[in-house]
Write a structure and sequence with these properties.
Blueprint (H helix, E strand, L loop, with lengths): L7 E4 L10 E3 L12 E4 L4 E10 L11 E11 L7 E10 L9 E7 L7 E2 L4 E2 L7 E9 L4 E8 L3 E9 L10 E5 L2 E3 L4 E3 L3 E2 L3 E10 L5 E8 L5 E3 L6 E2 L4 E9 L4 E11 L6 E11 L7 H4 L7 E10 L7 E4 L4 E5 L1 H6 L5 E10 L12 E4 L8 E6 L8 E3 L1 H6 L6 E9 L9 E6 L4 E6 L16 E10 L2 E5 L24 E11 L9 H15 L3 E7 L2 H9 L4 E5 L7 E7 L3 E8 L16 E9 L2 E11 L6 H21 L4 E7 L17 H4 L4 E3 L2 H6 L14 E6 L1 H5 L6 E2 L8 H4 L6 E5 L17 E6 L6 E8 L3 E9 L4 E11 L2 E8 L6 E9 L4 E8 L2
Length: 860
């Protein structure tokens, strides 16, 4: 075996499709640990030693995953039988902390892995933490296998390995040509990247002799030679398998489309005159070009486009416009805050893409937006008559093909592959008769968030976004996706009239080695969320930096705060408004609590206080928990035991006190995240003295943990005693932090969960006090699994009828039939054990003709 030559070429564009005998993208198979192991991929078995399949935010990949190598290697466990003309791959330093100066050494074996030898010199990966294309020209004959060793640096990613077969030499001089990875042939049209007028656009064409005699190159000429030039002339002779990169350059001071013909004369008997037709678009930024042309230019190219607005500020940026040829996004705050649907506009600026984590260039939403080198963007609204562009009706298959990016479309017969409710910054699987796809609900589209996901096929309108290679349909409002908006109760009650309580896990708050990378940005975002909600009490979890926590309290002058003192990095904490809350006592609850069950010492942090709202003072004790995490039997048992011991303490020691039990439960209430077992917190749900305020959110399908396939409702609030009557039913919510850009990556992976109490309600009206109006309070508990209490108050004696109906309007129970009731508060127990689970309505009607109806949920 003779290793003839190698050449490493680096290309910064996307791979071009071409004939290849072996291609491995590592999308099949799974390996989540660094320990040595063989993984069966689509091409065959590969050994990963101190390496795994990476799909985290710090990994660099095409598609959804790539190989991450720490200090080991990636090795084929099989031979590719047809030799290797070239070996190519995409590589990068990973994007985790400390991943720099990475290098890879590639070896090959021609004897089944018994002996290995270098295929080329060590390849230094770029320092941009972005995937780049690397190609080695090898010309290895016969069966071969390869190994990728991480030779320098920290973690690296390898993706899209391709082996093109060894090519036998012809018995005559043979010219072959390639542009990047694409083979090109005589008379082909070669498109240069568009370029701004006055700047250069360059291509390289690799000329190779695949014949045994020398290839004699007589001349390389351009037919016109006005705007195109040959920068590097080839040698007069190319030996067998010898290659040369022919560089051709274009420049023009004016805009327009330019063409020329490259003619190569050789002694190749089959094609002595090899012609390539050259074409390039020169863009004068002061002249309007079509959006389709603007979409083809390289990033950083300045363009001027015009079109009609299809998305104004519904997404808090970008705005979208389209002309007859295509659509484009524009992210420029003065632009998307001032335009309206249908406006005719002209925009000038650099073309780039929204690529928030350094993913593969060209696989994200293309847009006009400021870059590090160019923030000069201008626009003009030339016609504000609002001529609305019509949405084109297409299929999901057509959307996925990529021809409709940034355009306004409609898709008929869309079915959703999920149930529950819509939440912001989340993708939902959709399908029609042609394909499956993705629909994304943006955080700022408030009238869709909380609405029930349609159970039947619907028509959906929206613009087509693109993120990391996936096209997404994004509805703009309720007109694009007609669902019943979710209404939160009590929004008309001023904040200073209520006592508002929040539980919030702030992912590794203040940690330099975990959680969000930018600690200052995390701090500023946390302050913004706290000030936006403007609650009276915050129970916080995952505080990892004491100094940062007290810096937080210092930046919130209306609040005071304190931390737990666990022997762990992560602490729980409270923030509270000093004008509302008067502290009585605080500390860790240790009595009859097992250290192991409470995550090895993360005991409940209690806070006893007096809360005063509008001269109404209530004594309350709050218990903030951060329960044991993980989805396994042992962790589930620890959560279950902790819940039992805490409830026993409440029942025995705090029976008559107002309790708020809240925090990161690390589990759901309806069923456990572990194997769908009974919820560890069922002991609270089964006791009617306790009310799980946040269970209705879980019932509807909300999630408080926001990341990946494990989205779930694991942050909760449970209350007891008088607080049940004070609670504003329907005020509980998962906060939608649409006002924070890239919330999950910059702030935390949990959403705040909160609710509201009105001390003027509930027991503020006792049996002895007479209300001014006819009041029907929410039943308690709701949902319920056997009996529930129906409550109402009368301003004067009345004849009362109380009936229960199913959702079809059929009467299922009559609890009172024109019975006499005195003025004051009354309670009636309803036993639903003989009914089916579902939604029911109860109606209370007075002899005066006044009536009120409320909903309740029965769950067996």
């Amino acid at each position: 075996m003779r290793f003839i030559s190698f050449l490493v070429a680096i290309f910064l564009t996307l791979p071009v499709s071409g004939f290849a005998q072996l291609f491995e993208d590592f999308e099949e198979g799974s390996k989540t640990a660094y320990a040595p192991g063989v993984v069966d991929f689509s091409t065959g078995p590969w050994l990963l030693d101190d390496a795994l399949i990476g799909s985290a935010a710090g990994d660099r990949f095409h598609g959804t995953r790539s190989v991450r190598i720490r200090d080991g290697f990636l090795e084929m466990q099989f031979d590719y039988p047809d030799g290797a003309g070239t070996l190519s791959f995409w590589g990068a330093n990973s994007g985790f902390s400390g991943d720099t100066v990475g290098a890879v050494q590639i070896y090959y074996s021609s004897n089944g892995g018994e002996n290995w030898q270098p295929a080329a010199d060590q390849i230094q990966l770029t320092e941009e933490n972005k995937l780049h294309y690397y190609e080695l020209e090898l010309n290895i004959e016969g069966p071969v296998r390869f190994r990728f060793d991480k030779s320098l640096g920290n973690r690296i990613n390898i993706d899209d390995v391709r082996i093109e077969p060894y090519v036998e030499l012809f018995d005559q001089p043979t010219l072959s040509a390639k542009k990047g990875r694409e083979s090109i042939h005589t008379t082909d049209i070669i498109e240069f990247d568009p370029v701004n007028a006055g700047e250069e656009s360059t291509i390289k064409i690799r000329i190779t002799n695949h014949g045994i005699p020398n290839l004699e190159i007589t001349s390389v000429e351009l037919e016109n030679g006005q705007n195109f030039s040959v920068v590097s002339q080839p040698p007069s002779l190319l030996a067998s398998r010898e290659s040369f990169d022919l560089t051709i350059q274009f420049t023009s001071d004016i805009g327009g489309t330019f063409e020329d013909t490259l003619i190569i004369l050789t002694n190749d008997p089959d094609q002595p005159e090899f012609k390539l037709h050259l074409r390039v678009l020169s863009v004068d930024e002061h002249e309007i070009i079509s959006i389709q042309d603007a979409r083809m230019v390289p990033f950083e190219t300045r363009v001027t486009i015009s079109g009609r607005i299809t998305v104004a500020n519904e997404f808090d940026g970008p705005a979208f416009l389209q002309d007859e040829s295509a659509g484009m996004a524009v992210f420029y705050e003065p632009f998307h805050q001032n335009v309206q649907h249908g406006d005719s506009v002209i925009v000038t600026g650099p073309v780039t893409e929204f690529n928030p984590f350094g993913g593969t260039p060209g696989t994200f939403l293309r847009q006009i937006a400021a870059t590090d080198q160019d923030d000069d963007i201008s626009f003009e609204i030339i016609d504000a008559e609002s001529v609305y562009p019509e949405a084109e009706i297409i299929t999901i298959s057509e959307m996925n093909d990529g021809d409709y990016e940034s355009q306004l479309i409609s898709i008929e017969g869309v079915t959703f592959q999920a149930d529950g409710v819509f939440q912001g910054n989340q993708n939902y699987g959709i399908a029609d008769r042609t394909a499956s796809g993705e629909l994304r609900i943006d955080n700022s589209v408030n009238e869709l968030i909380g609405a029930e996901i349609p159970a039947e096929p619907v028509e959906v309108t929206g613009v087509v976004d693109r993120f990391n290679g996936t096209y997404q349909l994004k509805p703009r409002d309720n007109g694009d996706l007609q669902v019943e908006p979710y209404e939160i109760a009590g929004e008309d009650v001023p904040k200073n009239h209520t006592f508002d309580v929040v539980t919030w896990n702030i992912e590794w708050f203040g940690a330099e080695d975990n959680g969000p990378d930018d600690l200052n940005l995390q701090m500023n975002n946390v302050i913004k969320v706290i000030e936006t909600i403007n609650a009276d009490l915050y129970a916080l979890q995952e505080i990892a930096n004491t100094t940062k926590f007290f810096e937080l309290t210092k930046n919130l002058p209306d609040y005071r705060g304190f931390l737990s003192s666990y022997p762990q990095r992560q602490q729980t904490a409270y923030l509270f408004k000093s004008a509302v809350i008067d502290s009585i006592s605080s500390g860790q609850l240790l009595e009859n609590q097992n250290r192991y069950d409470w995550a090895s010492g993360r005991f409940p942090l209690f806070f006893e206080f007096d809360a005063t709202i509008r001269d109404q003072t209530r004594r309350i004790t709050s218990y903030n928990i951060h329960a044991k995490a993980f989805d396994d039997q042992e962790s589930y048992n620890r959560r279950k035991n902790a819940a039992i011991s805490l409830k026993e303490y409440f029942d025995e020691q705090k029976r008559d006190e107002n309790i708020i039990f809240l925090g990161d439960f690390n589990d759901q209430l309806n069923f456990s995240t572990y194997n769908e077992e009974e919820s560890p917190y069922h002991v609270f749900l089964d006791d009617e003295r306790y009310f799980a305020v946040t269970k209705p959110l879980e019932d509807r399908g909300f999630a408080s943990f926001l990341v990946g396939q494990f989205r779930s409702m694991i942050d909760h609030i449970i209350i007891k005693n008088d607080l049940i009557d004070y609670h504003i039913d329907g005020a509980q919510r998962v906060e939608n932090p649409h006002y924070i850009a890239s919330y999950v990556s910059t702030t935390t992976d949990h959403a705040p969960v909160w609710t509201r109490f009105n001390f003027s309600n509930g027991d503020a009206i006792s049996d002895e006090e007479i209300p001014e109006t006819f009041v029907v309070k929410p039943n308690y508990p709701n949902p319920f699994n056997s009996t529930t209490t129906l409550r109402f108050s009368l301003p004067e004696p009345a004849e009362v009828s109380l009936s229960v109906h199913d959702i079809l309007g059929q009467t299922v129970a009559i609890l009172a039939d024109n019975e006499s009731f005195s003025a004051g508060s009354h309670q009636i127990i309803f036993d639903a054990s003989g009914l089916s689970s579902g939604m029911y309505l109860y109606q209370i009607e007075l002899d005066s003709g006044h009536s009120k109806t409320k909903k309740m949920m029965f769950v067996k």
